[in-house]
Amino acid sequence: MSESGVEAARHLPIAGEMPRIDPDLGVARRVIRAEIDGLLSLASTLDGAFAEAVDLCAAASGHIIVTGIGKSGHVARKIAATLASTGTPAQFVHPAEASHGDLGMIGCEDAILALSNSGETVEFADILAYSRRFKIPLLAITAGRNSALAQAADVLLLLPSVPEACPMGLAPTTSTTMMMALGDALAIALLERKGFTPSDFHVLHPGGRLGKKLLRVGDIMHGPAEIPLVAPSSPMSDAILVMTAKSFGCVGVIDGEKRLIGIITDGDLRRHMGDSLLGRKAEEIMHRRPITTPPAALAAEALGLMNRSAITALFVIDAERRPIGFLHLHDCLRAGVA
Fold it and tell me: Which domains does the chain have, with CATH numbers?
């Protein structure tokens, strides 16, 4: 046996021997299961206080001020970002910085969402006193049922008593996962209550892949001046000139009411090529019932329609089938829609 063969044989399992389990993989699974158990316990213990929390946040005409320190502070920043991106104005205020002037960021029209596992975070003292002094609604997420935070809160979302995934029970793990999930639940409940739509979402997410997925046909289509159009009675010589001038490889045919009734493509020209083509009328050559799209359709949907229909362009029409724009495959690609 070669040297490489001997080395490979050393790693072959012996008959009857149990396969070696990576200890790190075992730790990862234990942690994830512990956090899943925490989330299941949280879901089962949610009660009417959650609806009160949604009411409190929905009633705020200003911002939801999310606050926390340490690991809870990191979660608070994420919750504030999620709320803001789903239609509920929110911002993070650090409780220590609040004691040094940032209390001025909190107005009477706001509501405060405070996160602390113990509920006894000393840095909360000033922000809690401020909320009580000016009657600013206070929502607390904590595991400390009898803590100072819980006692001060108008609405309490109590975290269930479950062990942290950390074997020493010290590092915030399961507790912060439950806080994160509660924040997501609040954000989505508020989103659904407000009737937040994909169009609203796009206003707040114009960049990145998410923004591209939410682009509408009307956002990227060519305007009315660029639409290639001819009348049914137009000779094909004129239709070809329009096709050439607009450079889209096709021309639409509209009736006397400006409604789209047909389309002529480069393929149609090849199929009808002959000495008589230039003298024929557009209505003789056109393909009736062209595939179209409304301007409110998602650009991604329009791209899918082009792919399924094996075409490269769509006329954009209004409710009366009048062309108001033109969308080419290349427009979708340039906009990053895929």
Answer: 23-196 (3.40.50.10490), 217-334 (3.10.580.10)
